[in-house]
Amino acid sequence: MSAHFEVYQDKAHQWRFRLKAGNGEVVASGEGYPTKANAERGCEAVKRAAAEADIVEAKAA
Question: Domain DUF1508: where (predicted)?
């Protein structure tokens, strides 16, 4: 199976998404949204941002 987003409703009736790798491991998850459509837009936003994202090292505080 290839990587994919799952959209689901949690126990608090909020819509969420998670990105799963091809092996089924969750590699990212989103915040709660009031509607399924908003969660789906969150998936699209992650797809757009990740395509342009650089990898940077976080500096210790």
Answer: 10-57
Q: Which residues of the chain have pLDDT under 50?
A: none
Q: What are phi and psi of 32, to 5 degrees?
A: -80, 140
Asked if 15 and 8 count as a contact pair (C-beta separation under 8 A), the reply is: yes
The model's pTM is 0.83
Parse the chain into domains and list their residue ranges.
4-52
Task: Tell me the C-alpha to C-alpha distance, in Å, between residue 48 and each of 9, 11, 21, 43.
Answer: 23, 28, 17, 9
- Domain 4-52: CATH superfamily is YegP-like (3.30.160.160)
